[in-house]
Design goal:
The protein has helices at 9-21, 28-36, 42-62, 70-112, 119-136, 138-162, 180-184, 210-238, 250-257, 268-297, 304-317, 324-338, 340-369. The chain is mainly alpha-helical. It has a single domain, classed as Amino acid/polyamine transporter I.
Length: 370
């Protein structure tokens, strides 16, 4: 993993957009409606604003550590012990989330496309794609994002435009749906829907200076906040409440609604293809940075020997949950409720301590000179 690897702001933003907005192809629209009723579209916007505030503090604290990822900062904050502790927190977090998401992707493909194939057979194709991507490296992954994201965007717009005839603006009333308390107080932990944003903390050595770091962070949050909110709003307009709380994969059903003439129908096949490409990119990015964390935490010289063991561990972990409903529970009620702690709280604490330690050392040096 060469330290000379660099990629631009646009590529980094697109990678983060893919990692966060993949939830549109899962059940986020349904979960937002369950949480806020017909005002569910407000929750991604509200939590995006909270994420932007949290990132403001992170970016301010990061200005003294240009070019260093969060594990490097942890080393400054508390030496090797702190580096290993913080590294392990992120490693465990990524193993848990990626294994859950791998299982969800496999289950969904089995249900809607390969229902006669064994689940283990379906998931192994994702694992193979992950292994190949990790061997090719981060440059290949970010370049693929620049190709795939426009294709996925076009497919998303086709689904949206194909459902315009089903839109009913009266479905957004009452405006505050389940109530202000449910939306703005109970949904505070939903900041976790931006948990994949933690990737930004590890791409710092691969991008420009602190200015690029802030630009990538703000733009990726703003764009994904808009996409998640807009995607949820489209679902609310097209599907009446409470029917909208019943569909397991909302956008697959919206894709099935599209029917314009003899030759423009059954586009869910395109949806499944673009969804699978997005899932592979998401998993590839996540696994690469998981391996990167392990390498940095334990100061290993090479990362490629870790690829196959990590892939095997993820493949094994994803089969531990007994069934799909339990997996959905873990994703919706554990990951999307508590992942914010690792994504935002841990970095802020580490950065605060590192800044205090750095200022103390600088003060001691000044005293020595005097």
């Amino acid at each position: 993993m060469s330290s000379n690897i660099r990629f631009g702001k646009i590529e980094a933003i697109l990678m983060l957009i893919t990692a966060i907005s993949i939830q549109l192809y899962l059940g986020i629209a349904r979960r937002m409606v369950e949480a806020g009723g017909v005002a569910g579209w407000m929750i991604p916007l509200y939590t995006c604003l909270l994420s932007l505030i949290l990132f403001f503090f992170i970016s301010k604290l990061y200005k003294n550590f240009e070019g260093k990822d969060i594990i490097d900062v942890a080393q400054i904050a508390g030496g090797s012990l702190c580096r290993v502790l913080v590294g392990l927190i992120f490693i465990v977090d990524y193993f848990f989330i990626l294994s859950i998401m791998l299982r969800i992707f496999g289950e969904d493909i089995k249900i809607f496309a390969l229902n006669k194939s064994p689940l283990s057979f379906v998931i192994i194709f994702f694992v193979i794609a992950i292994v190949v991507s990790a061997y090719l490296g981060i440059e290949t992954i970010v370049r693929l994002n620049t190709i795939i994201v426009p294709i996925v965007t076009i497919a998303f717009l086709i689904v949206v435009l194909g459902n315009v005839d089903f839109f009913d603006t009266t479905r957004v009333f009452p405006v505050f749906g389940a109530g202000l308390h449910n939306i703005f107080v109970k949904q505070l932990p939903r900041v976790s829907i931006y948990s994949a944003f933690s990737i930004l903390l590890f791409i710092v050595p691969f991008i420009g200076g602190n200015k690029d770091f802030k630009s990538i962070g703000y733009w990726s949050l703003i764009i994904t906040g808009f996409l998640l909110s807009f995607g949820t709003l489209v679902y609310i307009l097209a599907v009446p409440y409470p029917t909208s709380t019943e569909y397991f994969i909302p956008y697959l059903h919206l894709a099935r609604y599209v029917n314009h003439g003899r030759f423009f129908q059954r586009i869910e096949s395109i949806f499944i293809l673009t969804w699978t490409l997005s899932a592979i990119l998401y998993l590839s990015s996540g696994v690469f940075f998981l391996i990167y964390m392990i390498k940095k935490t334990f100061r290993l010289e090479y990362y490629r020997p870790l690829i196959l063991p990590v892939a095997i561990i993820l493949y094994t972990l994803c089969f531990i949950p007994p069934n799909l409903m339990y997996i959905v529970f873990l994703e919706g009620n554990i990951i999307r409720q508590y992942a914010w702690i690792v994504t935002f709280a841990v970095p802020i604490i580490v950065l605060l301590v590192a800044n205090i330690v750095k200022r103390k050392k600088e003060g001691e040096k000044c005293n020595e000179k005097i």
